[in-house]
C-alpha cells in the first residue's frame, strides 16, 4: 500500500469509524483518540494492510479493543483510589521554614537565585555561574551578600509583615 492509498483510506474511513466508536464509548474525544491509535497501528502494517479483506473492520475492532482497555485501566485506577485511604493531615511548614522563605523573598532576585541554586540545588559556584550567565566572581559576591542579608534578617526577626525597623513585607534588603 502506498502512502497516497493509505491517506485516501484514512480520509474516507476515519470520520465513519469515529462515529461508530463514539456510539460505543459515548465520548467523542476518546473515540477520536482510539481510532487515531488504530490507524497508527495500521500504518505500521500498511504493506499487507489493504490486502486484508476488511481493513475498515480491522480499524474498528482495534479501536474498540483500545477503548475497552482504556475503560479497564480507568476502572483499576478507580478501585485503587477507593482502596487507598485518604492521607492524614499533613502539618504545615514550621516557623523556621516560614521565616527562611520570608527572608529569601526580601533579597534581591539575583542574590536569591544564587543562594537557592548553590545551597538548595547543591550546584557549585561554577555551575551557578553557568546557569545564570554571570561571572564566577559575581556569583561569589551575590552569595556572600545574600548570606549576610539572610543572617541579618533571620537574627533580627525581620521576616514578617512588619519587622523591627517598621519595614513592610516586600521591602528589599540591598
Record keyword descriptors for this entry.
0% strand
Describe the structure.
This protein has 174 residues and is mainly α. 72% of the residues lie in helices and 0% in strands. The chain contains 8 helices and no strands. It has helices at 3-25, 28-44, 46-49, 55-83, 95-106, 109-120, 125-132, 136-156. Helix 1 (3-25) runs antiparallel to helix 2, helix 1 crosses helix 4 (55-83) and helix 6 (109-120) packs across helix 7 (125-132).
Write the layout of secondary structure elements.
Layout: H1 3-25, H2 28-44, H3 46-49, H4 55-83, H5 95-106, H6 109-120, H7 125-132, H8 136-156
Helix pairs in contact: 1-2, 1-4, 2-4, 6-7, 6-8, 7-8
How would you concisely characterize the structure shown here?
With 174 residues, the chain is an all-alpha fold.
Number of strands: 0
Unreliable segments (pLDDT under 50, ≥5 consecutive)? 161-174
Count helical runs. Answer: 8
* Category from helices, strands and their pairing: mainly alpha
Percent strand: under 5%
Largest sheet: none
Run of helices and strands: HHHHHHHH
Mean pLDDT: 85
The portion of residues assigned to helices is: over 70%
Globular, elongated, flat, extended or rod-shaped: what is the shape?
Answer: elongated
Distance between the termini: 70 Å
- Which value, in Å, is the CA radius of gyration? 30 Å
Amino acid at each position: 500500500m502506498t502512502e497516497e492509498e493509505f491517506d485516501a483510506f484514512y480520509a474516507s474511513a476515519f470520520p465513519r469509524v469515529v462515529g461508530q466508536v463514539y456510539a460505543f464509548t459515548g465520548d467523542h474525544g476518546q473515540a477520536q483518540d482510539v481510532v487515531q491509535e488504530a490507524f497508527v497501528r495500521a500504518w505500521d502494517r500498511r504493506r499487507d494492510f489493504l490486502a486484508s479483506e476488511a481493513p475498515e473492520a480491522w480499524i474498528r475492532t482495534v479501536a474498540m479493543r483500545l477503548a475497552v482497555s482504556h475503560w479497564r485501566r480507568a476502572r483499576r485506577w478507580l478501585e485503587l483510589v477507593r482502596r487507598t485511604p485518604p492521607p492524614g493531615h499533613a502539618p504545615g511548614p514550621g516557623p523556621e521554614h516560614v521565616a527562611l522563605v520570608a527572608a529569601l523573598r526580601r533579597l534581591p532576585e539575583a542574590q536569591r537565585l544564587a543562594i537557592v541554586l548553590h545551597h538548595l540545588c547543591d550546584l557549585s559556584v561554577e555551575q551557578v555561574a553557568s546557569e545564570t550567565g554571570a561571572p564566577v566572581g559575581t556569583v561569589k559576591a551575590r552569595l556572600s551578600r545574600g548570606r549576610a542579608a539572610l543572617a541579618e534578617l533571620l537574627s533580627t526577626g525581620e521576616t514578617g509583615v512588619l519587622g523591627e525597623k517598621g519595614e513592610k513585607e516586600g521591602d528589599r534588603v540591598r
